[in-house]
Amino acid sequence: MKLIDIIINNAEKGILITSYCSSCKIHIWPPNHYCKSCSKKTGFRKINRKGVLLEKSFSYLPDLIGNYGVGEFSGIRMVGSIDPSILPDDRISISQVGIKDNKLNLEFSKIKIKRLK
Fold first, then answer.
1. What is the residue range of 59's domain?
2. Is 117 among the domain residues?
């Protein structure tokens, strides 16, 4: 089974995984059988769903109209749909993982920070 097939099968269940090097302690995206840093064989690990929004944009593509952002999670960067009120540097989480047209489909939401009184 190809790496991408394993990732897609997990994403269909709402689980986001990628290659992980246990020697270097890093997630690898795009997925690979071997670590780019040490060349050792990789395994799989879930990606931390909490991260930060780096950039945002609006798509005018007919099937993809809406707001999208680049988020950084577990040291890797991924694209997902966002609410227009989310701004760069906001803390975000991956609120939805799925597959659309045989591609990874992510949705990010803002993490609400509780203020101390």
1. 3-110
2. no
